[in-house]
Amino acid sequence: MTSDRSEELSRRAAATRFRLAHQALTDGLSRLLGASAGTAISDRERAASIAAEFWAGLHAAEPNDWAFVAREWSDGERDRISDVLHRLNAYLGPRSVWLSSGAREPQALALTSDLVLDNPFGFAALADSEVRLLDQETGAGMWLGRHTHTGLSATRFTWELNVWGEPWLSAATRTFREAAG
Questions:
Q1: What is the tens place of the pLDDT at every residue in 112-125?
Q2: Which of 52, 124, 156, 180 lies 20 to 30 Å from 74, alpha-carbon distance?
């Protein structure tokens, strides 16, 4: 009986955390995008499944140089990062994506990549300084995340961009070649 009660309490707590995170995401997106905020997934299991698919795709691609590209910048290079993501968007065009966020109770939102890539730091502010996009058609995607580096005298921040799978990888490769040239 105690185990059943504990499981039920745990399930209810998880459902409450999901609902609160879902409402915070929906409110944040409404402030960011207005009426065109996209469609948030209200099914906890579906949102968790999308998050798992995102991480599985990223981790499967990481060890393969041919399937994965990564770059890192200092926090002070946000204009440069935005330029790279705007170029990526131009090569990629609007794609139907899942925006995924949250660790403990993942959230997911259906929208188009161009909305996110046009304002990456606005979206990062909604989700603990990161943007996770998973292409709905191909399972390819991108992750932009901020890292904190704590040293003896100071704390510094960096941004990391990971892109994998087609057509995202080809668009990122062209973007980086253009930015370097």
A1: 999 999 999 998 98
A2: 52
- Lowest-pLDDT choice from 39-48, 54-63, 89-98, 154-163: 39-48
Provide the pairing of β-strand 155-164 with 39-40: unpaired
Which of 87, 84, 75, 64 is CA-nearest to residue 140? 64
Say what angle helices 2-33 and 44-61 make with each other, to 10 degrees. Answer: 80
Query: Is residue 167 within 8 Å of residue 83, measured between CB atoms?
Result: no
The count of structural domains within the chain is: 1
User: How many Å apart are CA 163 and CA 4, to the nearest integer?
Assistant: 43
H helix runs in the chain, sequence order = 2-33, 44-61, 78-92, 113-118, 120-126, 168-180
* Pair of tokens at residue 112: 């188009």
Q: Which has the closest alpha carbon to 142: 181, 99, 111, 79?
A: 99
Task: Tell me the whole-structure pTM to 2 decimals.
Answer: 0.84
Strand, coil or helix: 138: coil
Q: How far apart are CA 102 and CA 109, in angstroms?
A: 12
Within a 10 A sphere around the Cβ of 163, how many other Cβ atoms? 27
Structural domain harbouring 140: 2-180
- For 140-155, how does the pLDDT look when each residue is reduced to its tens digit (9 = 90+)? 999 999 999 988 888 9
Confidence of residue 38 (pLDDT cuts 50, 70, 90): low
